[in-house]
Amino acid sequence: MRGAVADSGTLAFRPRAVAGWWALVFLAGCGGGSPSGPTSTPIPFTSHSSPHFTFRYTQIDAASVAATAEEVEAQRGPILGDLGLGEMPAVTVTLYPDRESFRAAVVPLVGSVPSFASGLVNGPSEIHVLSPNLASQWSYANGLVAIVHEFAHCVSLRVNPAIANNPRWLWEAVALYEAGQIVDPGSLPYLRAHQPPTLADLDRIENTAIYEVGGVIAEFIVETWGRGALRALVVAGGSLETVLGLDETEFVALWFDYVRRRYGI
Predict the structure, then answer these.
(1) How far apart are CA 150 and CA 164, in angstroms?
(2) Could you give the CA distance from residue 117 to residue 120 in angstroms, rounded to a whole number?
């Protein structure tokens, strides 16, 4: 269920439960940097189509791709509803059997990517992500969450084509919240020490703390002002003054007060 809290070992995923958590694996954006990195012989993909997605997969996903598509389809409607989008074109999801083939495919598209990146979007209709069956990376359940996270980015781009990492704190907060990735604030030493990061901190691409706190930031917005406020912020490019009448310092102070009261830290 979205809005439930994950401890250090579990993750709540809405609307059907999918357990697990993985560390800081997403770079999601539409470009940046100059193409460089590994190259390899292209691998052959097979396609599986569902009503709103085309999945490109290899043998590692052959037995499960239909179930993967069904699960992602189940998440699609609620995410569109949350972000105020009635419909959108089909999305292509490419599932890579290993990290080498993932990097070889995406570096020419978006430029250099961090070593920790395991999924990204290349525009509002194209997801690239490691296979949920890549056991060395994550559990199958966590791989499904990864796909949903990236799909939420696609929806955000349909709502506002300029939103990718602009601002990064909102871009990731929306995707984390929609995928049910909410980390227990009590598991984060800097929050227990009452030292919340600034939005400027969270906007720095090298700072991975957004993956720890982003879900709770979006939860705070929804619980305080409603889902419409989250949609409005995406449309407004994260302008807190326009949507909420707050500056960044006031917003962070209110958010952390919410965290302290709700989670008892």
Answers:
(1) 12
(2) 8
Question: Under a CB-based contact definition with an 8 Å cutoff, are residues 198 and 192 in contact?
Answer: no
Strand arrangement, sheet containing 46-49: 46-49, 53-57, 91-96, 126-130, 119-121
Chain segment 27-84, per-residue pLDDT in tens: 433 333 333 344 456 789 999 999 999 999 999 999 999 999 999 999 999 999 999 9
Tokens 């600034």, residue located = 198
**Alpha helix segments (H runs only) across the chain:** 65-82, 99-110, 140-159, 168-178, 189-192, 199-203, 210-225, 227-235, 240-244, 248-263
What residues contact 10, with CB distance under 8 A and at least 6 apart?
A: 19, 20, 21
Q: CA-CA distance, 215 to 197, in Å (whole number)?
A: 14
Assigned token pair, 211? 């993956």
Query: Which are the contacts of 92, defined by CB distance < 8 A and separation ≥ 6?
Result: 53, 54, 55, 56, 125, 126, 127
